[in-house]
Specification:
heterodimer, A: 240 residues, alpha/beta, 6-stranded mixed beta sheet, 4-stranded antiparallel beta sheet, 9 helices, B: 223 residues, MetI-like fold
């Protein structure tokens, strides 16, 4: 469903992505891992064009989205995103955060989205926080609310940009467990993460990035058992 | 020798006090209408400033620079006297006052708003974009409401400035507090008393605005 073709991205004279190609199929859970500064987040952000590739093509459902006249807003409704810093809208309650986009973008009626919103909040364990403002939520609760918000648009895929990196250790688990449940629903997930245990357990496949290159693309079982590249081996030795 | 140097004779101007008090309405009307219109124009100007269309940016930049770079009194008399000369339209003091204060406060407010928007975490914009929300809705429902909350204190300051600067319309004949005090003064040949009353009225109005702002800020903080 997502295909990247020779993606390059430069910020000024600094080239962050140096020609990355790969494909993510429907229902797959992909973990993108690698050392800091390897370009993981930038790569993820090119998928929904929060970063525009300097060169190369991004295809969503066989449609090239960074060329010609494309309604990028419509494409983005297919690709939910969860951010490291949650980015909930602070002036809206949890429920308003969840239902705003489907109500305004998809023009779903208020009753329908409220029912949907409440059931999503229940799913992520925040049924009692519907009318709470984000400033009164813990980090873990915020991130779960953000996941519910992304799900409310009923996307085909969700992009996770280091979803647990800004959390206190005791809250990492509750977010990962919501993500684990999600992985079983058949939704496509692309996860930039430093949680190796989680990647090993939940991801179907792993992309290992180093210095802007996609060094390794393997099923996660194989990758964690015996990485093919020397660079990945070194990396795993350091973090595991 | 005089028993005292200062002679205050409030009794003689007492009958004129209601007349001066009526000026409060006029002053408040100038301030309120200009602030409301200036707020709307300020938002439009801010949108020009943060847009990616160069001519709009230039326009907003030059506009702001001119209105902030020249005296308000000059802008007022220019609009009041130049409009009839250029267009043949006989502009009233009320219209000239509202127009000048609106255009002027739009320039100042747009600077505050731009700063308020820039101060927002860019993650807000990214989260909204990633949900596929169209740009106009992002501005209207996500960015501007938060930016306004950020700039609320400077919005109140602008209202206070405007309230005090509105006294300038007395120079073109607007019947505000100051103008009325001056009229009473020249009728009775008493200057200190009516101007003192005018000063007290301005001060009270500003104090009311300030405490209302404190209340509002407190309320926003808790919600």
């Amino acid at each position: 469903m997502i295909r990247l073709e020779k993606i390059h991205k430069s910020f000024g004279s600094h080239e962050v992505l140096k020609g990355i190609s790969g494909e993510i199929s429907q229902g797959e859970v992909l973990a993108i891992i690698g050392p800091s500064g390897s370009g993981k987040s930038t790569l993820l952000r090119t998928i929904n064009l929060l970063e525009t590739p300097t060169r190369g093509k991004v295809y969503i459902d066989r449609e090239c989205i960074n060329e010609g006249r494309i309604n990028i807003g419509k494409i983005r409704t297919k690709l939910g995103m969860v951010f490291q810093q949650f980015n909930l809208f602070p002036h809206m309650t949890t429920l308003q955060n969840v239902i705003y986009a489907p109500m305004k973008v998809k023009n779903v009626s208020r009753e329908t989205v409220e029912t949907l919103g409440k059931s999503l909040l229940k799913k992520v364990g925040l049924a009692d926080k519907a009318n709470t403002y984000p400033s009164h939520l813990s980090g873990g609760q915020k991130q779960r609310a953000a996941i519910a918000r992304a799900l409310a648009m009923e996307p085909e895929a969700i992009l996770f940009d280091e979803p647990t990196s800004a959390l206190d250790p005791e809250m990492v688990k509750e977010v990962l467990s919501v993500m684990k449940d999600l992985a079983h629903t058949g939704i496509t997930m692309v996860i930039v993460t430093h949680e190796m245990g989680f990647a090993r357990e939940v991801a179907d496949r792993v992309w290992f990035l180093d210095d802007g290159h996609l060094v390794e693309d393997s099923p996660s079982k194989d990758f964690f058992k015996s990485p093919k590249s020397k660079r990945a081996k070194e990396f795993l030795e350091k973090v595991l | 020798m005089d028993r005292s140097v200062i002679h205050l004779d409030f009794e003689r101007i007492w009958p004129s006090v209601p007349y001066i008090l009526e000026g409060v309405q006029v002053t408040l009307a100038y301030t309120g209408v200009s602030l409301a219109l200036g707020f709307i124009c300020g938002i439009l100007l801010t949108l020009c400033k943060i847009s990616h269309i160069q001519p709009l940016k230039w326009f907003a930049g030059i506009y702001t620079s001119i209105f902030r770079g020249t005296p308000l009194l000059l802008q007022l008399v220019l609009i009041y006297h130049a409009t009839p000369q250029l267009t043949g339209y006989d502009i009233s003091a009320w219209q000239a006052g509202i127009l000048t204060f609106t255009l002027n406060s739009a320039a100042y407010l747009s600077e505050h708003m731009r700063a308020g928007i820039n101060a927002l975490d860019k993650g807000q914009m990214e989260a909204a974009l990633s949900l596929g929300i169209p740009y106009p809705l992002i501005m209207k429902d996500i960015i501007v409401p938060q930016a306004i909350r950020n700039i609320l204190p400077s919005l109140v300051n602008e209202a206070i400035d405007l309230l005090k600067e509105s006294a300038l319309i007395s120079t073109i004949g607007g019947a505000d507090i100051l103008r009325r005090a001056n009229i009473v003064a020249s009728e009775k040949y008493l200057y200190f008393e009516p101007l003192l009353i005018a000063g007290a009225l301005y001060y009270i109005l500003v104090m009311i605005l300030t405490s209302a702002a404190h209340l509002l800020e407190k309320k926003l903080k808790t919600s």
